[in-house]
Structure of tRNA modification GTPase MnmE:
Amino acid sequence: MKNQEECICALATPVGGAIGIIRLSGNNAITLTDKIFQSANGKSLEEAKPYTLHYGEIKDKDGNTIDDVLVSVFRAPHSYTGENSTEISCHGSRYILQQVLHRFTEVGCRQAEPGEYTHRAYLNGKMDLSQAEAVADLIASTNKATHKMALSQLKGHFSNELSLLREKLLKMTSLLELELDFSDHEELEFADRSELQALAEEINHKITTLAHSFETGNALKQGVAVAIVGKTNVGKSTLLNRLLHEEKAIVSDIHGTTRDVIEDTTLIDGITFRFIDTAGIRKTDDVVENIGIERTFQKMEEAKIVIWLLDEQPSASEIEEMKLKNQGKKLLVVFNKMDKLENDKLAFDKFTHSCGSDSSESEAPLFISARTGENVSSLEQALVKAADIPEITENDVIITSARHYEALLRAHDSLTRVLESMEMGMSGDIIAEDLKMVLEELGEITGGQISSQETLNNIFKHFCIGK
């Protein structure tokens, strides 16, 4: 990021709306706004109280009116960035917005970089790093669950959890280091080892629980991955189009039409599903098609749910192979073209018999018509059930960031070493060093002990310009 002392300006709203908002932030933001703004009541913005709205005109350098505007005034430290700030509400014309921004650069503002407003808020102590990342997640939220998770993190619920853990870790570390200060007195033991071990186990359990929540959080944020697999011409692309409610994939009677992986997302009952249409599985000499088939198997590995689409009874070997390749996943067996099937019950009985005596109600195949849409709603409900997403509230702490997840795993590893050292009766200085590593890893999440400016820049560069 550039000089933090400069006043920055940027458009905070998308172009094309009826209203556009330009945001300024910096110690002299109010002064610079005053230079190009003429209030209807003739008063200077320098005299304005915080959280007030002022009607007037923005003037060009020759004194001509560019637009009638409303100016909001925020004074440090009670603003989003913690600095003096103004927000100018203009008419949404692209030309008007460009002219107003140009006027601000003429009087001394510079255009903000992506994420610079939130970066300043972080540097000024208005939020920690995990809360700053939640701002981007809130903007990008696509469903009720991702909105709740981002809001929870923005409100500091995750930060509070980490703060409590850090307090306990600091207490443990300080007691061990106090022992080291009195190492000449071997009879002194400030830190009862059994109590420390119990506390370390408690903290490690909490860190593990937080890390495990990433599977749910990532699925909700990125979309639950669903691979649609099957032989050529069973209707995989037709089903994808039906689930997405748009013609995303090319549909043809020619075998091998889909040669590459096609992905897109849609909402079902408030859950984002990421559907993956794959190349049809068959033996072929076509080099390009074989690459597509190889990618099919790769996507099956990635998916949480696999839809095995059929239009005829599979062989016993095919069933076993599909089960083997999808161990640990939710496998939904779906017979397509039910509008052409003469006897659904016969197909079900054959499939159940082929699966063996361990077949259960949950493994019962579904019968649909991707072409007509018949019974596709039952498949959608089966997908929601298979996703197994818990109900999320604003108070729940769910990890959605890979950066946070990796830091928690490193903290878990360090704390595991602490427990192993205690079991082996290691000295307090060795245990204290690993505890410090845990503190550093948790500090990386909130920004209390961020390791490099490069990490900060990488986080904020993904924000939009006006945030």
